[in-house]
């Protein structure tokens, strides 16, 4: 899990922001490649494409530019779900005030991989590798067990509501 989290975090830091059309903050190499389309002479256009794709390929091999798809970004967002700070917005996964929040993850569903009681209440380790700790005084009606389905919803003011096997939710925070 730790290596997966670091990989997602690294990808998040290197991924370009989606607001290119507004401020043209696209990487210079990408912009040069797209500029090749405007050339009317086919030989010049092909030479431009060859030169720019070679430069872009070299930059990706050196990890100066990272190319990612929506699925990889969604996976990284899911891996960051539940952290108190808006890490995803800080790392280019959105956060423009004029963007809609349709891509924002509002809830996840997974299952319990281990469970125990701690001084503050329940401590749940989930199949996705995250660990959640209870931070309120309510309790589940039935004790959580390994394999139980867990639904975590984003609450208000940075809280997260965790329901196990469809029981009423309790407040928990992600600690790992």
From TrEMBL:
Residues 1-21 form the signal peptide. InterPro entries: UCP023238 (IPR016987). Keywords: Signal. This is Secreted protein. It comes from Novosphingobium mangrovi.
């Amino acid at each position: 899990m730790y290596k997966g989290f670091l990989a997602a975090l690294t990808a998040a830091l290197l991924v370009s922001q989606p607001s290119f059309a507004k401020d043209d903050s696209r990487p210079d190499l990408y912009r040069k490649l797209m500029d090749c389309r405007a050339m009317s002479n086919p030989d010049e256009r092909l030479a431009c494409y060859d030169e720019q794709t070679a430069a872009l390929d070299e930059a990706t091999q050196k990890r100066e530019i990272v190319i990612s798809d929506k699925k990889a970004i969604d996976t990284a967002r899911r891996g960051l779900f539940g952290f108190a700070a808006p890490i995803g917005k800080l790392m280019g996964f959105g956060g423009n005030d004029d963007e809609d929040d349709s891509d924002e993850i509002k809830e996840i569903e997974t299952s319990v991989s281990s469970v125990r009681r701690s001084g503050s209440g329940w401590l749940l380790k989930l199949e996705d590798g995250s660990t959640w700790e209870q931070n309120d005084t309510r309790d589940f009606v039935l004790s959580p067990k390994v394999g139980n389905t867990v639904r975590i919803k984003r609450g208000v003011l940075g809280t997260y509501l965790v329901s196990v096997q469809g029981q009423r939710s309790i407040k928990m925070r992600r600690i790992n």
